[in-house]
């Protein structure tokens, strides 16, 4: 097969070429840089590029498989791809390690007062009344029980935390001491010291969390959002933080991104913010490539057994 | 038995009195506040007070058991206590949760650039080139394989880290992928991304780490010290940090404590410092009391089965 990548795979592409020398691997800078020959002959396209649209795909008459190096496929021309019978696999799961780790970074920053100790060091101070809290025996509740939440829950249990998972039907998931359905989420919020949103953006998750949810979490709670910012309206978030309805928030995602420098969120003293970076990893392409390699070994004729095969009827 | 506590146990003392109502529990503000009756009648003393010396013990003619609410017993009159046949138990193990957690707080602060992200937030910045590192697949090496190291190694493995333990004879310990004897420690340092000292202060550990040890760790290394500051001379530490022989240090303990505000350590930009606080916990007394309760249940007549029974010949 002729395989074109518009993802900058660098040495990973050489590794692929060596391991799968029955195929021809070609790297192009972007989809705009595909040659007429590329378009005509490519059977497989590795991409992570918002310009992959129906018009382009129509020119790629031999294309059989799109290897999408992101998790979300909602901007791809799914209906057309389904009609054409193009196989689509994505990079679901490549975020779980880095996002899980950052959840604990936020918790440590908050529970261990790392900023306060940093300030103490800057002032050459030694004596202090700063007292830290322990993760041990705390209850952490994840909204969503997918791969990221499950991995983070496993680590939380290693810290001696109690884990609660919230999903649509309350089904049991490994590494959660308890699971609750979305309808009963406020019962879980009441028990939790930390609530972590890891939900993706769908029609069902936009504006899901309202003031009553934060009232259930209460003034003890640290709310962490590494899912999508649209899960709660910014005005609601500002109100609950300003009025200390919850204790603190750690946010990597925002309703409108990039966050405006004039956002009132910056004025709050009980907030930790990062600029949508928890999913980044120096090993991102390596991990996505490992999934692709497994699928290449399975072989395109057995694509129904592929890892991360997108189901066009579900849209993910 | 008449049991005197000079540790402020508050409600924990009431709990003890209720659970063990065959004994009489009395709290005194300090050893100076013991009455003549206390001295004459007490059979059991709960203390954490540097003034517990031979002179005082000689007055406590009925004393059979000292429950020491700290780990280190090296300042107690051990020879005299042994002669008298006084049972001594300590609070070994009560630090493992909080110190383990703080090890990961330092790692998160360093690997996830939490200070840089905090500064970015203060400047209302959103775009950034700050790239973080992952704990996953890193190698962490503990000098010492006692309870703190073992607990931290267990958590490290949950993060997907490789763990190496260094102890006197290289004996295997749970949660360490590999163990190495102290003589071969530099081989372990070469493999490690993070080296954590958790050793207590003994004749054998004072000035144990010299320049060659840090050269073995190399410029990739984060060195964390939550054991005792005397494991490395301050001048050596300053040299290896100033010359970037190692990448960074996170220190909770210092050669001279409290650390002088004029210490050259404050001038270094590759150092994280906290004022000997990683062992503190709001649950310290609760944990020490739980050990004591277990021993009370075992009963003084079976003291050879006690948890944390100090062996006078070993001194710990």
From TrEMBL, chains A, B:
UniProt KW keywords: NAD, Oxidoreductase
Keyword Oxidoreductase part of the UniProt annotation: yes
Pfam families attached to this UniProt entry: 2-Hacid_dh_C (PF02826)
Entry's Gene Ontology molecular function annotations: NAD binding; oxidoreductase activity, acting on the CH-OH group of donors, NAD or NADP as acceptor
Keyword Disulfide bond found: no
All residue ranges annotated as the D-isomer specific 2-hydroxyacid dehydrogenase NAD-binding domain in the record: 105-277
Name this protein carries in UniProt: Hydroxyacid dehydrogenase
